[in-house]
Hints:
Largest sheet: 8 strands, mixed
Mean pLDDT: 96
Order of helices and strands: EEEEEEHEHEEHEHEHHEHEHHEHHHHEEE
Amino acid sequence: MILRSLRVMLPDGERPASVHVEDGRIVAIGPYDAGLAPEGQHADGEDLGDLVLMPGLVDTHVHVNEPGRTEWEGFQTATRAAAAGGITTVVDMPLNSIPPTVSVAALAVKRAAAAGQCHVDVGFWGGAVPGNADDLRPLHEAGVFGFKCFLVDSGVPEFPPLSAAELDAAFSTVDALFLVHAEDPTIVRPAPPSRRYRDFLNSRPPQAEVAAVRTVLAAASRTGARVHLLHLSAAQVLPLLAEAKDEGVRVTAETCPHYLTLSAEGVPDAGVAYKCCPPIRDAANRNELWDALAAGVLDCVVSDHSPCTADLKQTDIGDFAAAWGGIASVQLGLSLLWTEAEARGVDLEDVVRWMSRHPADLAGLVHKGRIEVGADADLVAFDPTATWVVDGRMLHHRNPITPYVGRTLRGMVRATWLRGVLVDGSTPRGRLLIR
Length: 435
């Protein structure tokens, strides 16, 4: 197969090109007109014209929740939504499913649940929780890409947080990537019952992230561990992160579309669809996150797709204290980010790099997230000029509750190929990946 476009996103920039695919891999990248028969288009290919041909996105922060809480989400629905949003690889988080992925036996249960259901490729993170230190090395050897842990209550009882001492011990147990939900439990306080967003926001102040990140960076510095800060929302953390990187601490960090496109000022009373942890902060904070991405202090943008059922989100009540904290956006991330980026004068190339190659590199997926010879032919045709309105009925994830309903977005995914095969949403062809 040959795909050609006047706008192909290559590692050295955008240009007209043809991408040649055999057996699911990119085997050559040639001039735009390479492979054309005298009478026109090559029989086994497609001319995308001025649609952008970009690498499939890699989302390393997705809560699929199956098995155990499959009514919240599931492999079939989550991966169908991912493909519709231009994502060709997801790495599933170890919690919210039952059992959580904290042992080799639990990983086997998770893989069995996912088998034959996935429309994109799927890998798995393991979990580090109190008492499972002896499970970490076997889990790593079984193929998880690293380990997620919490320093604060996770929201589900079967995945408790680590203390500072337990964090140090986990970092010293196995040479692996550790992903940390960094909020300090001594600063986070219970939110009062309220329909006002400000009351919830005040319960999780920026200082909670700052204190927890100090703990993580100190542990990483002592042990030499490789750490990744999840869903960074507080701009006050950024100087600490930049300093640690300059000092050689092995640390990376992500943020999410909701922190880059929404602001506290825009959250309506009872708008519980906006609730997430850490919370969406003000517009000035959002601007600093964009600056940190441009400067390379923040490394990537991933969804933290964390859906739930309507009764848990409590949309009929609107109490921020009682509602489940999580935002569903796996299908919308690319369009969300491009809408905001274009308005800020940020290039599409930057957006694609933050959402494809950088998260792929984070997980060690060297054949994903790039259009180059030898890479998997995971490709996306994207129309950056299309304008559309988010309608819950067009969302493929199981529970279409999202703060983006009714929002006008710029840019639409027109087609997604997984290893050179068009994803049709009906035939699951995704593979289960190991580290």
